Amino acid sequence: MEIIVNLDVMMAMRKVSSKELAKAIGITEANLSLLKRGKVKGVRFETLAAICNYLECQPGDILAFKKDA
């Protein structure tokens, strides 16, 4: 089982830079980079809500579940 992070795709669709998003939601660019690459063990709902609010999307647009074969 794996959670796929599609944040970079959504940011590209909205033409939003990492610097712009990080500043808007109040996290560092380094932490945003880790989140985009799926290198975090968790994400706060508050952070996820801020991302979705800024990008005008749903959590499911950013996160996907991949079942093992």
UniProtKB/TrEMBL annotation:
Organism encoding this protein: Pseudoalteromonas luteoviolacea S4060-1
Protein name: XRE family transcriptional regulator
Transmembrane segments: none
Database matches in SUPFAM superfamilies: lambda repressor-like DNA-binding domains (SSF47413)
Family matches, as PANTHER family: DNA-BINDING PROTEIN, DNA-BINDING PROTEIN-RELATED
One Pfam family, short name: HTH_26
InterPro entries registered for this protein in UniProt: Cro/C1-type_HTH, Lambda_DNA-bd_dom_sf
Gene3D superfamilies referenced in this protein's UniProt entry, alphabetically: lambda repressor-like DNA-binding domains
Residues in HTH cro/C1-type domain copies: 14-62
GO MF annotations in UniProt: DNA binding
SMART domains per record: HTH_XRE
